[in-house]
Amino acid sequence: MEVYLxxxxxxxxxxxxxxxxxxxxEGLAQAQRVAERCRAWGIQFLCASTMARAQQTADxxxxxxxxxxxxxxxxxxxxxxxxxxxxxxxxxxxxxxxxRQLQLGWERLWTRVMPxxxxxxLYARTNGLERVAIVAHASTLTLLLLNWLGLxxxxxxxxxxxxxxxxxxxxxxxxxxxxxxxxxNRVG
Length: 188
Known about the structure:
It is a single chain. By secondary structure, the chain is of the alpha/beta class. The chain has one domain: Rossmann fold, CATH 3.40.50. 37% of the residues lie in helices and 19% in strands. Strands 3-2-4-1-5-6 form a six-stranded mixed β-sheet, sandwiched between helices. α1 (25-41) crosses α2 (52-64) and α3 packs across α4 (138-148).
């Protein structure tokens, strides 16, 4: 199985509502470029975060591949305020969170993303879908990569990955689920 992790296009961070930040003009262009790459890769199964910026990126892909099977999953959303389980004294901007809040956020994100990945994986394997694209956010994609490296959310304190708008990462899983990371943060 080939899994393509795709960072959504550049988002308009001027929009206050974290969930509905749309893509910028550059982000829309990035989405079109990644859509062309998805067509070349022959994506069969497209899964996307329900946040607006990921939805717009997935929409661009689906325009190029109208027959692709698509799942939109809340579990693939960016780490967010909801992951802190209503903890008081915290705002929606992750950059302002304390180390303890970040740890809780990573842990809760892990408990969302891993079951979603298992559902995606089992569905793809059961239905013979060999090329899967996941359009999401840096935090979500980071946890997927850590999982394939045999690590979990606790490794975020010492391991990070760079993801640019519209960039992709290719992970190959063989029949024994051995992992080969083909590339990370490929823009072109």
